[in-house]
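Supplementary Methods S3. Input chains for the assembly prediction are listed below.
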Amino acid sequence: MGEAIVITSGKGGVGKTTTSANIGTALALQGKKVCLVDTDIGLRNLDVVMGLENRIIYDLVDVVEGRCKIHQALVKDKRFEDLLYLLPAAQTVDKSAVKPEQMHKLINELKQDYDYIIIDCPAGIEQGFQNAIAGADRAIVVTTPEVSAVRDADRIIGLLEKSQTVESPKLVINRIRNHMMKSGDMLDVDEITTHLSIELIGIVADDEEVIKASNHGEPIALNPNSKASIAYRNIARRILGESIPLQPLEEANKSVFGKLKKFFGVR
Amino acid sequence: MKKRQNVTIKGTKDGIVLHLDDSCSYYELKKELDEKLSENQRTQTERQLTPVKVDVGNRYLTDAQTEEIKDLIRQKKNLVVDKIESNVVTRAEVDKLKAENEVVTVARIIRSGQILEVPGDLLLIGDVNPGGTVIAGGNIFIMGSLKGIAHAGVFGNDQAVITASSMQPSQLRISDCLNRAPDNPQNNEKREMECAYIDDNHQIIVDRLQVLINLRPNLTRLEGGH
Ligand SMILES: Nc1ncnc2c1ncn2[C@@H]1O[C@H](COP(=O)(O)OP(=O)(O)OP(=O)(O)O)[C@@H](O)[C@H]1O
Ligand SMILES: [Mg+2]
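Predicted structure tokens for the full assembly:
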């Protein structure tokens, strides 16, 4: 029986789809059987980032409405030997075409055959969000080091906590720029984690290689030589239960030490 | 045998007290009160209104009955009811009173978009994040950072206070007073262990926690001991 992880954020454009594609790819690289599910109905693009757009025949709404079997709709990623699949979102209908109960049933079925189901959530807190979290066991909240993104992440964490079906969410901080953080022009990692007070599971640098890779339909996690790729691979290993220090090292250490000091009341 | 009196009138140094027996029926009581007040009417010559206290013992009066008794007394005499005292309160009233005097402890983070509301005092172990709101009928004590909105004494209690380990609110409200965060906050200013209260000019003041010891001695609930 597998585990379903929803990737969510509240605010749009912070990197949910990029994170879903790369965590899924990195888990497959670790030998896990993974199914990516795009729940951004009407605005699908996980298929594009994965480079699988041309092979779509059926979509999630077709499955839910019984027009095809699940396995007919799943698109296989040929770069992997039977490890990575995508269930694409529908492009033609809107988000209200699917109900949370239907999503729950669908995800449960997928959990029989896959180790990990990675659910890419649409922006916002309405029906699309409710659908995306309906079948999830765990959640990863993505934010960028911007006040508005952190505020929306806080709202989302509150909703996840209220739903009580999802285990306590983990945090990914995306698009970090070291020089801006150092100069104080961007929220730093410590500020964000103190504010949201959930466990940090990954820090991903702002890296133009990510954009290039996405545009070529080759998730950056496939390229072993980029900073962002290492960050995504580390997130995957942490999901699998390994304890790996946070990148970039320097900041991670400072932050952990800072917390300990606070905990013991040392200034 | 003479019937036991259900209504007795006594003059004390604080004014007139009407004792209404609690073992007869309400109907009987009303009738007798009517008679008693009518027979004494002649002797009363003063023009000005005299306040009376009504003691109903172990009888529970509904709001409607309370009004009836008040009307009755006012009609017959130059009397006006100062207050009606009863030893009895309803379960609902007790629950409400108890709730308003209770400290509710919550260990949680109040996140953006969330509202936590309690009838009495609130002890929050955790933060109020920007966009989050805590509301209390009484005081609000926050063991953590207050970055959102806190509203104490929401039913109109001007004595209510707000305390926080770290005070960086977007808004403070006490009773009907409001205090907004400055638009250009000094970033480096540490606001730790502070309190907010309404001063004599009906303004919300933020100060160090310790000033409450003198300003709000009633915060102490310890009975006995030293
Ligand atoms: N670490 C990164 N470095 C550089 N660019 C990034 C990074 N992460 C994401 N991006 C870029 O940011 C843009 C938005 O990313 P993405 O589509 O993953 O966000 P999203 O949260 O899924 O958006 P939406 O809310 O519209 O679904 C994309 O162009 C993506 O390539
Ligand atoms: Mg997306």
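The longest strand of chain A covers residues 170-176. The CA atoms of residues 40 and 122 of chain A lie 5 Å apart.
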